[in-house]
Design a protein that fits this description.
42% of the residues lie in helices and 23% in strands. It contains five helices and five strands; from the N terminus they run H-E-E-E-H-E-H-H-E-H.
Length: 129
């Protein structure tokens, strides 16, 4: 997902640990070398369940919070997902979607190869038995 998004943005994205001035740290799924782009990824396929909806709000909050502490503010904060259905609840007038937009976090959907989607769906099926 990071490679696909990085190609779209014409930048390399790699996992990164960032330390807040308070001493707390966060792990972000992807960051550009210059920290101008920060990304959290979620590969879920299909509609989000209730608890999963809050995971996305949590990820957006993490990005916005750590971004405020950086010397140079990132110009893109991104939740990267692999299925539009997984974020459909954020596209309407939900408070979660409004909050994420107000935090300055964009949602980008990348299309994964069919074999990868199949593997993810199979794993999700096993998890929810």
């Amino acid at each position: 997902m990071l490679d696909l998004l990085g190609a779209r943005l014409d930048t390399s994205l790699n996992p990164r640990r960032l330390t807040h001035p308070s001493g707390a740290f966060v792990e972000v799924d992807g960051a550009s070398e210059d920290l101008r782009v920060l990304v959290e990824c979620w590969a879920h396929q299909g509609p989000a369940k209730v608890a999963q909806k809050y995971k996305l709000v949590n990820d957006a909050t993490k990005l916005a919070w750590i971004a405020k502490s950086l010397e140079k503010r990132p110009y893109r904060l991104i939740l990267c997902v692999s299925d539009e259905l997984a974020v459909a609840h954020l596209r309407g007038r939900s408070w979660q979607g409004a909050a994420i937009r107000e935090l300055g976090v964009d949602i980008e959907v990348v299309e994964l190869p069919p074999d990868v989607v199949r593997t993810i769906r199979d794993a999700q099926t096993r998890q929810y038995r």
